Amino acid sequence: MDRAQGRPSRLDRDKNVTVFVQFALKRHPELPDVPTAVDLARNDEERAILRAIMNATEVGTAFFTTPGAPTDRVTALRRAFDAR
Q1: Which runs of E-coded beta strand occur in the chain?
Q2: Residue 25 DSSP label
Q3: Residues 33, 47: contact at Cβ < 8 Å?
Q4: Residue % of the chain over a pLDDT of 70
Q5: Which end of the chain has fewer CB atoms at under 10 Å, N or C?
Q6: How much is the pLDDT for 8?
Q7: Residues 65, 77: contact at Cβ < 8 Å?
Q8: Alpha-carbon distance 64 to 12, whole Å?
Q9: What is the mean pLDDT of residues 14-22?
Q10: Strand partners of residue 36
Q11: Which residues on adjacent β-strands are paired with residue 2?
């Protein structure tokens, strides 16, 4: 525990990092035993959702909002990303 920050330390005493999951469609060759988020899905619906998210991250950054989001908010989000 990193007492100064009040949260678990991401590094062990030897400054090693433990990787729990990969946010990608395919496992990295250097991390063959670390599952992808898709591997951890509990059912077909979760797998489909995670594949959609991971596909989008292969191309760029994915942003999602809730179904039925107010039109003015969706418009504001689109304008903000177009301005980047």
Answers
A1: none
A2: S
A3: no
A4: 81
A5: C
A6: 54
A7: yes
A8: 34
A9: 81
A10: 22
A11: 7
**17: which 2 tokens?**
């990092």
Tokens representing residue 65 in the block? 């909002």
Rounded CA-CA distance 20/8 in Å is 14
* Lookup: tokens for 44: 């077909």
Residue 63: name the closest of 81, 45, 79 by CA.
81
pLDDT for 47 equals 95
What residue has token string 């797998």? Answer: 47
What would the two tokens of residue 9 be? 């330390």
DSSP state of 36: B
Is 1 in contact with 7 (CB distance < 8 Å)?
A: yes
The DSSP element (H or E) to which 55 belongs, if any, is helix 44-59
Question: Model-level pTM greater than 0.85?
Answer: no
